[in-house]
Each structure stands twice: as C-alpha cells, then as structure tokens.
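Tokenise the fold.
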Amino acid sequence: MKSILNIDLINDYIKKNNLTNAGFCKLCNISEETFKLILNDNTDIDLTDLFRISRILGVRICEMFNPK
C-alpha cells in the first residue's frame, strides 16, 4: 500500500542537509514521537505539524501528499 505522505521529501531533505532525525525535529519544532508517527504513515497527525515541516522543506502542503 502506498504511503499517504511523500516521506521521500523529508528523507531527501535530511540527507541533503546532513541532519539527524532529532535535528530535523528540532528544526521543525515537532516531537520525535510525532516524526515517528509520520514515518510510519499514521493518519493521526496534527495538521499544524505538517505545515511546520512543509515550511522547512520549502514546499506547499499539498506537495507533501502522494497522489492516489
């Protein structure tokens, strides 16, 4: 089953900027628990956290979702 979120955007950003997962979380001002939920494709994620991540990635929120 295909993931709802485009996790590759996040992973590419982390690799490109030589960040750890904890460093990325701190940069986005999200908890590591929230980040784990996102990576595990949990749908119980606060939209505010996704907006924070999209702002850091420099993408629109709609780009964070995979098309069906």
In short: The mean pLDDT is 90. DSSP finds four helices and no strands in the chain.
